[in-house]
Write a structure and sequence with these properties.
By secondary structure, the protein is of the alpha/beta class. The chain has a single domain, classed as 3-Layer(aba) Sandwich (Rossmann fold). It has five helices and four strands, in the order βαβααααββ.
């Protein structure tokens, strides 16, 4: 699969864990942000140790996209519209996925019925 997706932290973790439901996305083009990699690093550090967490972080650094002030403001508008359960990082990721014309890949139930989302539970 060579289609691009914005991978939220949930999706990145499911790929790392080898989730069968995420198998078809393992060869997709990854789009993410530094903030998602921050969340990923922390989560994988707890589960897989510091060295592996750093390895995952370094492997994914090349897939980060930049964001600016307007993106942050639009993410806050989206978060406010959708409800406060969506994290700031996920709201920003979703806004960036729309801006870049790629689907937002997640298993976060708060995104289950949102346009432009590829919802997959792990």
């Amino acid at each position: 699969m060579s289609e691009a997706y914005f991978f939220d932290t949930y999706a990145l973790i499911e790929i790392i864990k080898g989730s069968k439901n995420y198998e078809k996305y393992k060869d997709a083009k990854v789009v993410t942000t530094l903030l998602n990699l921050m969340e990923l690093h922390y989560s994988t550090m707890k589960e897989f140790g510091k060295e592996n967490a750093l390895m995952f972080f370094n492997e994914l650094r090349g897939f980060m996209i930049e964001f600016g002030e307007t993106d942050i403001i639009n993410a806050n508008y989206f978060k406010h519209k959708q409800g406060s359960n969506i994290s700031y990082v996920d709201a920003l990721g979703y806004v960036l996925s729309v801006k870049n014309g790629v689907k937002f890949l997640t298993g976060d139930k708060d995104f289950e019925n949102v346009d432009g989302v590829e919802f997959v539970r792990g």
